[in-house]
């Protein structure tokens, strides 16, 4: 504190300017003469409450000594010199106080409020902390007016045994995240990424060599850090973190989800790599339905069921397979949307028209668990994905009887997110499961999920031919049928118990971009989710 100027104001009327060479003040305890009479008797001990003048004078002298750095003098003006010495010393050293200004306010009885303005310099970072506190003047055992010592004098948030310290913040270092082309990604420009950007900061801020901020914190009696009371600095970002996000496609996704009603969500993936290109939700803030939502996917799941059937070799796209209005399996009756019926249909036509009954009629062709194994071993669902941020990688439990039939059409216990179904579309397009990532694995050398199997070339070719038929002539044609290039799709309409309308689902690929969207409680897949996916694929 050498050479620093401090200021103390007590009672709002008397100002004292203090310097390193000394300080001025005013006397409160002058005697009538400079020398007592020889036969004078000791004055009796004063037991009455401190007078207003004693309160002002004691508070003034204490604050002046504290502000000037004279810990010994300040501590001597308290009723617990030892504790005051330790804690006043710690205040200056642990907080790294370079300048202290204390301003007293009018007393209320024996209580004197005062304001604190502390200049703190720590690890090359400067900050000013301003707050209010108070002290109380009492008499000690000899009757002398003193400050009643407690840690709360230093700061009202402190209790017995606690102190203060400047320490690194619990908040992770700031992070600059950029898209695959280097475009900065901010929550202001891409609001659907707000939660993802927060997660990235938490996980990668230090990895990218960012500097954490500094806080003023409570220090517990055992030395452990307590609550943060004041941020000193926000810290500094390190190297930019390159993500897989395509800034242009992200902007389109943000716009597209706002057109089809609340709770819409969409994810776009690059089939050749598994890179997540865009993630968007409506509303943008809050729960990330696109990455973490758990929904029944409805008929979009038929991509996996069809792959399972094609792999058996017992079914091909041209295999005759009728589509009746209703069918019973496992003691339960199933129907098609709007009572659809197709006589003399082929498996490919059933897929393109999204015929539930045709698919359920093949249940006896497949052993129990076959579809679930295909979802896990070929399409990678439930493989504990490590995308770089929290995500849901799907759940397809083994079912028997009517539950088996429901799984085949994406109902029952199947739970997936738009991320999962975008990956299903991407796997169908490439023939190989590439675990979705939003941060390249090379950044932190984390383990990426690998599917035990991949689609046989003949099966993948047949599956894509049916998805192309769906996109060009089937239920997806009204939305993506006019896109040029390689386009495949599947629609989905998932019924939900207790919900007025079904969830609208749609997945598709266009060249090297695959996407999936869900719009809950709306209607058929192509009418709502399909428009979101079509908008993205048109921009790709």
UniProtKB/TrEMBL annotation:
Residues 265-537 form the Penicillin-binding protein transpeptidase domain. The chain crosses the membrane at residues 7-29. SUPFAM superfamilies: beta-lactamase/transpeptidase-like. It comes from the Bacteria. Keywords: Membrane, Transmembrane, Transmembrane helix. Residues 58-162 form the NTF2-like N-terminal transpeptidase domain. This is Penicillin-binding transpeptidase domain-containing protein. The lineage of its organism: Bacteria, Bacillati, Actinomycetota, Actinomycetes, Kitasatosporales.
């Amino acid at each position: 504190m050498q050479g620093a100027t401090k200021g103390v104001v007590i009672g709002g009327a008397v100002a004292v300017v203090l310097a390193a060479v000394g300080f001025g003040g005013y006397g409160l305890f002058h005697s009538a003469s400079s020398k007592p009479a020889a036969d004078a008797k000791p004055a009796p001990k004063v037991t009455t409450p401190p007078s207003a003048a004693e309160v002002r004078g004691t508070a003034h002298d204490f604050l002046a000594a504290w502000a000037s750095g004279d810990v010994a003098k300040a501590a001597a003006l308290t009723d617990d010199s030892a504790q005051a010495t330790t804690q006043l010393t710690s205040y200056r050293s642990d907080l790294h106080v370079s300048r202290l200004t204390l301003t007293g306010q009018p007393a209320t009885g024996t209580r004197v409020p005062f304001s604190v303005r502390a200049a703190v310099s720590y690890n090359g970072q400067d900050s000013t902390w301003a707050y209010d506190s108070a002290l109380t003047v009492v008499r000690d055992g000899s009757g002398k007016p003193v400050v009643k010592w407690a840690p709360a004098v230093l700061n009202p948030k402190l209790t017995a045994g606690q102190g203060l310290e400047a320490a690194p913040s619990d908040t992770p270092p700031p992070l600059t995240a950029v898209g695959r082309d280097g475009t900065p990604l901010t929550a202001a420009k891409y609001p659907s990424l707000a939660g993802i950007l927060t997660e990235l900061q938490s996980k990668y801020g230090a990895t990218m060599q960012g500097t954490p901020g500094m806080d003023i914190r409570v220090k517990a009696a055992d030395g452990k850090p307590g609550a943060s009371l004041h941020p000193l600095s926000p810290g500094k970002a390190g190297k930019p973190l390159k993500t897989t996000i395509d800034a242009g496609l992200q902007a389109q996704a943000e716009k597209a989800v706002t057109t089809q009603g609340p709770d819409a969500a969409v994810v776009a993936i690059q089939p050749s790599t598994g890179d997540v290109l865009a993630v968007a939700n409506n509303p943008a803030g809050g729960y990330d339905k696109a990455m973490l939502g758990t929904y029944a996917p409805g008929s979009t799941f038929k991509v996996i069921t069809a792959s399972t059937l094609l792999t058996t070799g017992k079914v091909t796209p041209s295999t005759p397979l009728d589509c009746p209005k209703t069918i019973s399996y496992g003691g339960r009756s199933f129907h098609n949307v709007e009572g659809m019926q197709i006589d003399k249909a082929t498996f490919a036509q059933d897929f393109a028209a999204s015929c539930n009954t045709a698919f359920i009629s093949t249940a006896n062709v497949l052993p129990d668990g076959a579809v679930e194994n295909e979802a896990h071993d070929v399409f990678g669902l439930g493989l504990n994905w490590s995308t770089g941020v929290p995500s849901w990688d799907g759940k397809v439990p083994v079912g028997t009887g009517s539950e088996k039939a429901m799984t085949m059409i994406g109902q029952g216990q199947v739970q997936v997110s738009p991320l999962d179904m975008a990956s299903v579309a991407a796997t169908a397009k490439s023939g190989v499961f590439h675990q979705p990532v939003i941060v390249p694995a090379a950044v932190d050398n984390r383990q990426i999920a690998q599917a035990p199997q991949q689609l046989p070339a003949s099966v993948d070719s047949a599956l894509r031919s049916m998805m192309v038929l769906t996109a060009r002539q089937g239920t997806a044609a009204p939305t993506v049928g006019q896109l040029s290039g390689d386009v495949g799709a599947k629609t989905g309409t998932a019924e939900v118990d207790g919900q007025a309308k079904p969830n609208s689902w749609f997945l598709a690929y266009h060249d090297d971009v695959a996407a999936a969207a869900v719009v809950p409680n709306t209607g058929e897949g192509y009418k709502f989710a399909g428009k979101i996916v079509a908008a993205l694929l048109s921009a790709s």
